[in-house]
Structures are given as structure tokens and as C-alpha cells.
Amino acid sequence: MDVFAYLVAAWIFLAGCYGLATSRDLIHAVGCLSVCQSATYVLLLAVGYRDGATAPVFSDLEPGARPVVDPVVQALALTDVVVGATVTALLLALVVQVSKRHGTVDPDELSELRG
Amino acid sequence: MDHILIAVALVLVAAGATVAVATRDPARQSLVLAVLGVLLAVLFTVLQAPDVALSQLAVGSALTPLLLLLTVRKVRRRGQREGDDE
Amino acid sequence: MSPRTRAWLVAVGGSGLAALLVAACFGLPEFGGDSHPYGDRAVEASLAHRTANTIASVNFDQRAFDTLGELTILFAAVLGCVVLLRQTRDEHRARPRPAEVDPPVRRYALLVLPVALLTGLYVVAHGQLSPGGGFQGGVVAATALHLLYLGADYRALERVRPVGLYEVGDAVAVSAYLVTGVAALLGGAAFLANTLLPHGTFNTLSSGGTVPLLNAAVGMEVACAVVVLLARFLDQAVEIEEESGT
User: How many domains is chain C built from?
Assistant: First the structure.
């Protein structure tokens, strides 16, 4: 269990990278990029986890009564989830433009067009 | 007990990510990504991060797949029209 | 580059990266360990400013400047989408015909819509108390609005969603965030410092000083941004067509 969580994050990242490199469709590539992104959330939250701790929300918890997990990494992951989605939207807008200009979304065909 | 739950959630997420990458058809992939979003939300909940889980649930299971599907529809519709013209 | 060389390159680079990542995993602090110096200090600082949800405190108080950066990325991304997905000269709009919706789908969508919208607003409003906040609630409220597309049709959605208004709302929300930061400067403190308002009673809606204000600004910005984004993509997918034969 010690490093299992970190290894899973590494696996997700590598899987996403593999998908990106071998993708035949730009929309699929954007999907793979969002898989890569989720690896960073898994890694961050795994680093911030503390055994036997609860969420760092004190609305129904006496401060100091129980240990809490690290809130800083959670704040980092939280903002990135939403901002990452809008960046994904920007990439998809670029894909729509590419398909309008070149009539294809296959990266291989696109590089042939240019060459 | 906590560790078992976390380990199960981690395995599910890893499997979901692998399937999402291996699904080559973007329309199907967006559905797998929606499932992956829910799995990630479950993992974040057992990692005691309800804020991130809520965020992931809203974005990962609804917004991102929807945007992907709309892009697929746009690109496919273009492809069909060009096919008709020829 | 031929596919063969590329496959080799991916294999070599990927295995190198994998080896480095695995080595790094064994160098990270132990999973579930007890040493979180930054986390402990963040909790203390949050309680000192009477914010019950530490994550909201980190986002909108201790690291408010960082959140401003995130907001700028969000704003720029939305702006980029609006520019990229505009209607160009060689395109025209085809009005979609009103489609028949199955009565059960319609009933369910129209039943869930107000509940989802209210949930989104609740999540924004209680950001500094319970899990949630502007980022999550904004997305929930904005996507809830699009249940109308499922339940009724595209025209009904367009009537309740004047996109121009949401674009203005997006910009106003970013400005509100900036103005709150500048107000702290005028008050003689650092930019975005949480000194402007009394910190209030712990665990009430008005606690946390400027945290609820910044939280509300972010909620508005995210909700408007998502509505604008989905509107542009729906436009492209449903309405805008290229002139045939050009």
C-alpha cells in the first residue's frame, strides 16, 4: 500500500501519454489528455492523505478533535479540475477549426497535408 | 479498512483510465470518460477530499463528456456532408 | 516520421519516463504519513479567520492570488473558444426544427432542473462552510440550465439564455474579484488580503471576511463561463452549417 497509490497515478499518466502518442483522432487525443490530467489529481491527493484523518471541514467537527488530511493539495486539485475543463474546451475548439480548414482530424493525414 | 477501500477505488480508477485510452472511437470514449469521472469522484471521497470529489463529479461526468460529444457531432456532420457532395 | 520509428520512439521514451516515475514514487513521503507541515499551518490560519471549510480558506484567502491566476486562465480559455467558434462569413445558420421529446424524459428533466439549479446555488453560497464553493456550484448551476435542452428544445434554451448577457457576467465577475483585491490595497493591506471585513461568527454564512465575496465572484464567473462555452459548442454542433459548394 505504501507506494501503490503513487504507482497508480504514474500508470494513469503513462496510459494517457501512450494514448496521446498513438491517437489517430484529435478528439480522442484530447480525451487522453484529460486522462493524463486526472493522474495529477490522484498523485496530489495521495500525497496529502493522512491515516485515520477526516476531511478538513470544521462545520460539524470540533477543531483539534480529529486529525485532518492536507487541505493545500486539495485546493490545488480543486481549482485545476474546473480550469482544466475550460482548457479542454479550448483544445476542442481548435479541433473544430482544424476539421473546418483541413477536413480531417487524423494527425497523420494532417502532417501529410502540410508536407 | 480505509486502506482496502482506497486500494479498491485506485484499482477501479486505473482500470477506467486504461479502458478510456484503449477506446479509440471518440463518442464511446466520452462515455467511458464519464464513468471514469464518477470513479475518480469515489476515489477522492475515500481519500477524504469531498470538495475535489464534487468538482470532479460535476466536470468529469457531465461537462467534459458533453463537450467531447458536441465536438464529435460537429466533426462527423461535416464529414457526412462532404460525403454527400461527392 | 514513419510509424515504425515513431513507435520505437514512444516505446523508448515511455519506458524511460516509466522508470523515472517509479523511482520517484519510492522517494515520495510515505502514503498516509503524519507529516503535513503546510496542511497543519493552513488549518490554523483558516481557523484564525473563522472559515470552517479550510479548502475555501486556502483558495480564497491564503492563496487568493493564485486563484486569480486560475481565473485568468479560465477567462482566457473562454475568450479563445468564443473567438475560435464564432460564425464565419462562409457559414450560415440553419434553424433546427422543434423536436418531439418523450414525455417521461420531458417530465423528468423539467422536474430535476429547478432542483439541480438550486443545488448549484446552495453549493456556491455555502462554500466557506461545507464542501463546495464557487468552482463546483458554478458548474452544477450552469449544466443544470442545459437540462432545458433535454426537456424542451433548443429554442426554449435560447430564450432563457441570452449569451451576450452571460459574456458580460463573466467579465463582471472577474472584475469583481479584482476590485475586492484592490479594495484591500486601499484599506492599507496587501492585494487580496482578508482584512476588509470582520471575520464574523465561526460557522455562519457571513463568516470568513472576504472569502464569501470572492467565492461568489468565482461562482458567477464559472457559471457564466460554462454557459458561454456550452452555447458556443451547441451553436456549432446544432445550428451553424457551411455554405454548400464553397
Answer: 1
